[in-house]
Design brief:
The complex is a heterotrimer of chains A (295), B (325) and C (324).
Chain A: H1 3-17, H2 21-38, H3 40-43, E1 65-66, E2 72-73, H4 84-120, H5 122-136, H6 140-151, H7 155-182, H8 185-192, H9 197-233, H10 245-253, H11 262-289
Antiparallel strand pairs in A: 1-2
Helix pairs in contact in A: 2-4, 2-11, 4-5, 4-7, 4-9, 4-10, 4-11, 5-7, 6-7, 7-9, 9-10, 9-11, 10-11
Chain B: H1 2-29, H2 34-37, H3 44-54, H4 60-72, H5 86-121, H6 126-140, H7 143-157, E1 170-172, E2 175-177, H8 182-215, H9 218-225, H10 230-268, H11 273-283, H12 286-314, H13 316-319
Antiparallel strand pairs in B: 1-2
Helix pairs in contact in B: 1-12, 5-6, 5-8, 5-10, 5-12, 6-8, 7-8, 7-10, 8-10, 9-10, 10-11, 10-12, 11-12
Chain C: E1 5-16, E2 19-31, E3 36-40, H1 47-54, E4 62-71, E5 74-75, H2 81-87, E6 92-95, H3 99-102, H4 109-120, H5 126-139, H6 145-150, H7 158-170, E7 176-180, H8 188-205, E8 208-213, H9 216-222, E9 225-230, E10 233-239, H10 240-245, H11 250-258, H12 297-301, E11 307-308, E12 314-315, H13 320-323
Parallel strand pairs in C: 3-8, 3-9, 6-7, 7-8
Antiparallel strand pairs in C: 1-2, 1-4, 4-5, 9-10, 10-12, 11-12
Helix pairs in contact in C: 4-5, 5-7
The chains are: A mainly alpha (295), B mainly alpha (325), C alpha/beta (324).
Chain lengths: 295, 325, 324
């Protein structure tokens, strides 16, 4: 594709996408969140994990109240005296990284299995798809639970569990589009020329699978972020040293009955906005790429 | 049809077998299997005895056979925390979980089905669009957070409903359940609502999609041409057709409800199997963990089987082979 | 003799994103009690929409824009929804085109038949309703009706399903049946049978019949009068005798010539040159002008209105009167 074609394509995608105003708003929200997550350490008012500055004297201050040294905490402080706003910024970073990372890994694994299954067909394909189907018949939280119960807690193990939960969705999607492409004649021709299976799969079949994979990717990433938050809330996911939003909410849970609502509400809202905006973007992408809705 | 049932049953057993293999391998390869049966803090002599008794010094295959035999006879060892056999411990807590899941399913159906049909019949209306946007919110909000919000609003702020625990039990038709007492209902309402809200949106979207597809069919127009009342067309002709895919989803959703109840039970301190497993994972109470995993997997496998059979039953096209075409 | 159905200047338009489709554009016709009238036209000519308009089954984005539909002195557009419901399936019944999709696949035949009776007769007993249905099945030539009642639609062949639809139409002894291509989807051998049976039933019970089809050969045999539609308008209507033996409008002439028959064996099949214009962009003047051998400059500019010919039939053409 020439440079011009690439720009034209992008422009076309954007004009179709922006037909849905809500999706555009969602995209903007998500961009802000992404920005916050990446630059958390720079834009945070305080470093909530710097033990030197955090004191229990400041604990459980309601939002917008001053502490005795005159600092205003926009969203209040938690039980240990940490600034909620900063904690949320750092939490966003962790939640997003785990969610996106696991999504990317799952995509690679899933696409690999899906495309190769469609390409090679036969028993291999049946086996892979059977495994995927059976795994998909179990709720994601159960699969994650099994992994974490067997292997224990921790960052890598959580990511591993999330990848395991998601790969099947990617595999199924990749296989569906790969099937369409594999059946085309030029693939047979390429095979005859012994062009190397890997090359065919990468250069020809993979590009066709990308649009649906992107759609699944956005929706699955939202799901992964939600799942990680749930696991961390239950104390099973990320360790205390990597406080994702789920953990923050979990910490805030103890204070629900005493009325210190801000310790769990605000991280929750941040989580909610993240997930909803990703879902809205994903929804619009899906409608855009759905051939049946094309006019 | 019987061939189909036999096939599916066989498949289910294969899956169960494979799962037991996975659990066994997981425990053997990861944790020290000895500590499956006995706490690592025990006396060395105890540990020796256990090793001999359970054959941990035997080859792996023999161990697996042992494992299977024990599972088949219901022996999962004893809980480290409570000291009583693992299997009865879990089974005792199951009714509370099932009760919660059933009531949640009921709530989500009662809300989602009519709303979904409405949104499907009148997609252009503003109210329909609001319903559909609401559904996106529904499955975006993580269950545990919604639970916390519910507690904050209804229990803490408004003080209308209790926020923890299970209520009193009542008996009806020989079944004991907290659904049969007013006190029980007040306790189950919030957690059930919490659990329901998550699944509600998927049932809602499915119902709407199904309705939109079916309403355009010729046989609906023909029913109207016969002079049937609007309610008959909707309640009989439309509903029976969309119910088939919905029942399938409901069956699978029920399994999902049971799985997600782990979260709701933790938030609302509901004494079900879900809370037990979370606590057990926390406490590294391995016998209970293994027992729970095997049971829940078995539950799922057979749930899927039943749903498959139910589906073939409901769709007369699958149940009875057609003549021509 | 007062007609039981009078359609006057009916216009049913569809307002789509791509433009307005004038599916039915100012048609007028009537049906007398006990008469069999044919409504003939190619697919897309608007004949099915005419049937739906009469029964008020036009869904968005379609709408009846103007015109009158009178059934036995009742203005069908002004009556309440409840009154319309009473008429459908009861005084006016409709047989749909595709027997495969007309019956609900998850309900038994007996359910779908009995509900038609019960919708219009709240007091009848289940047994009486059942008997009526069973007898109706016998009437249309379905053997072992008791077994068939319990069956599901997918267990029937296409021909049998259409017969069930016909039986359903007859259940409440309607005054008028609108049959939309009732035999088109059937095997040729069954077609003849069904046509014969319908004709017999209508003559015996005095039911009027509007037979909507593209197949001129079928209507030639059984109808009393014919209306020919093209691009949403009726271009010729009159007694069957006259229309078939002496067609005046070039389109009708073309249709009749196109029917393959034994007499013309070995001859090249006749075709009307050109194609039906797109309903989104109908030409300014007469819609048939491009394909017509009688065309003149005037035809491009002026849409012909319906006029009565000397022999009693009605025509839409600027040039026919001038030729004779």
């Amino acid at each position: 594709m020439t440079q011009n074609n690439k720009y034209e394509l992008l422009a076309k995608i954007w004009s179709e996408f922006s037909e849905n105003k809500i999706a555009v708003v969602a995209l903007v929200c998500f961009s802000i969140i992404l920005f916050v997550a990446v630059f958390a350490s720079v834009i945070s008012p305080t470093d909530p994990y710097d033990l030197a500055t955090v004191t229990i004297m400041n604990s459980r201050l309601p939002p917008l109240e001053e502490d005795f040294s005159g600092n205003v905490y926009w969203l209040g402080t938690d039980g240990a005296g940490r600034d909620m706003l900063s904690a949320i910024f750092y939490g966003l970073r962790i939640s997003l990284s785990v969610g996106v990372l696991s999504g990317i890994f799952a995509l690679i694994v899933g696409a690999f299995f899906g495309i190769s299954a469609a390409y090679f067909g036969g028993r291999y394909e049946t086996l892979i798809m059977r495994i995927a189907d059976i795994q998909l018949s179990f709720p994601s939280i159960l699969v994650a639970l099994i992994i974490l119960a067997a292997f224990g807690k921790g960052v890598e193990k959580t990511i591993f569990a999330l990848v395991l939960v998601q790969w099947a969705y990617y595999a199924r999607t990749a296989r569906a589009s790969a099937l369409v492409e594999s059946r085309k004649e030029y693939v047979d021709a390429a095979r005859c020329l012994s062009l190397g299976n890997l090359r065919i799969m990468l250069n020809h079949i993979l590009p066709n699978c990308i649009p649906p994979l992107i759609v699944v990717g956005t929706l699955q990433t939202a799901h992964a972020i939600s799942l990680e938050a749930t696991l961390s809330f239950l104390g099973l996911g990320l360790p205390q040293t990597e406080p994702s939003l789920g953990l923050l909410i979990g910490n805030g849970f103890e204070y629900v009955h005493t009325g210190d609502y801000w310790i769990s509400i605000f991280p929750g809202i941040a989580l909610l906005i993240t997930i909803v905006s990703i879902n809205l973007v994903g929804d619009q992408l899906r409608d855009m790429f759905n051939p049946r809705l094309k006019r | 049809m019987t061939v189909y049932i036999l096939q599916r049953t066989l498949q289910s057993f294969v899956v169960l077998f494979v799962m037991s293999l996975i659990v066994f391998c997981g425990v053997n390869l990861i944790g020290d299997p000895i500590y499956m049966m006995i706490s690592p803090e025990s006396e060395p002599a105890e540990i020796e005895r256990v090793i001999k008794e359970f054959g941990f010094d035997r080859p792996v295959l023999e161990q697996y056979w042992f494992f299977l035999k024990n599972v088949a006879s219901g022996d999962f060892g004893r809980s480290f925390v409570q000291g009583i056999p693992a299997l009865p411990l879990i089974l005792e807590r199951f009714p509370a979980t099932i009760e919660l899941a059933v009531f949640s399913l009921f709530i989500s159906l009662v809300i989602a089905l009519p709303l979904g049909v409405y949104a499907g019949l009148y997609p252009e209306r503003k109210s329909s669009k609001i319903i559909m946007s609401g559904s996106i919110l529904g499955f975006s909000m993580p269950t545990f957070w919604v639970g916390i919000m519910l507690i904050m609003l209804f229990a803490v702020k408004l003080d209308w409903l209790p926020s923890t625990g299970r209520g009193e039990l009542g008996t009806f038709l020989g079944i004991e359940s907290s659904l049969f007492t007013l006190n029980g209902l007040s306790h189950i309402f919030l957690p059930a609502l919490n659990l329901a809200l998550f699944k509600l949106s998927s049932v809602l979207r499915l119902t709407r999609a199904g309705t939109r597809e079916v309403i355009l069919q010729d046989y609906i127009k023909f029913a109207r041409a016969k002079g049937l009342s609007h309610s008959r067309v909707i309640n009989v002709h439309l509903l029976k057709n969309i119910l088939i895919p919905i029942v399938t989803v409901i069956g699978l959703e029920f399994g999902s409800l049971v799985a997600f109840s782990t979260v709701t039970e933790t938030v609302f301190a509901w004494p079900g199997a879900g809370k037990l497993i979370i606590d057990s994972v926390y406490n590294l109470d391995r016998p209970v963990i293994v027992a729970y995993l095997i049971i829940i997997v078995a539950f799922f496998v057979f749930l899927n089987l039943i749903v498959d059979i139910l589906y073939s039953f409901l769709d007369p096209r699958v149940r009875i082979k057609g003549s021509s075409e | 003799m007062k007609p039981i159905l009078e359609v006057e200047n009916l216009k049913t338009y569809f307002f789509t994103k791509e433009g307005v489709v004038k599916a039915v554009d100012d048609i007028s016709f009537h049906i007398n009690p006990g008469e069999i009238v044919g409504l003939v036209g190619e697919s897309g000519s608007g004949k099915t929409i005419t049937g739906f308009s009469i029964l008020g089954l036009i869904d968005s984005p379609g709408k009846i824009v103007s015109g009158n539909i009178k059934f036995k002195d009742l203005d069908l557009q002004k009556i309440s929804a409840k009154q319309m419901q009473d008429i459908r399936g009861n005084r006016i019944a409709m047989i749909f085109q595709d027997p495969m999709m007309t019956l609900n696949p998850v309900l038994r035949i007996e359910t779908q038949m009995i509900e038609t009776i019960k919708a219009h007769n709240k007091t009848i007993s289940q047994q009486d309703a059942y008997n009526t249905c069973r007898d109706a099945l016998g009437l249309v030539g379905i053997s072992s009706p008791d077994e068939r009642m319990k069956a599901y639609p997918h267990q029937f062949s296409g021909g049998m399903r259409q017969r069930v639809s016909i039986a359903i139409a007859l259940l409440n002894k309607p005054d008028l049946i609108i049959a939309d291509e009732p035999t088109t989807a059937l095997d040729v051998t069954i077609q003849g049978q069904v046509i014969f049976e319908m004709q017999k039933l209508c003559k015996e019970s005095g039911t009027a019949l509007l037979w909507v089809t593209h197949d001129l050969a079928v209507v030639a045999g059984i109808t009393d009068r014919i209306s020919v539609m093209y691009a949403g308008r009726i271009i010729e209507q009159g007694s069957t005798d006259k229309i078939i033996n002496q067609p005046l409008h070039p389109y009708t002439q073309g249709l009749i010539k196109s029917v393959p028959s034994k007499n013309k064996k070995g001859e090249k099949l006749h075709q009307i040159d050109g194609m039906v214009p797109s309903m989104f962009s109908l030409p300014k003047g007469c819609a048939f002008e491009e394909r017509c051998y009688l065309r003149s400059e005037q035809c491009k500019q002026e849409e012909p209105s319906e006029t009565q010919h000397t022999d009693g039939r009605f025509l839409r053409c600027l040039n026919i009167g001038k030729q004779t």
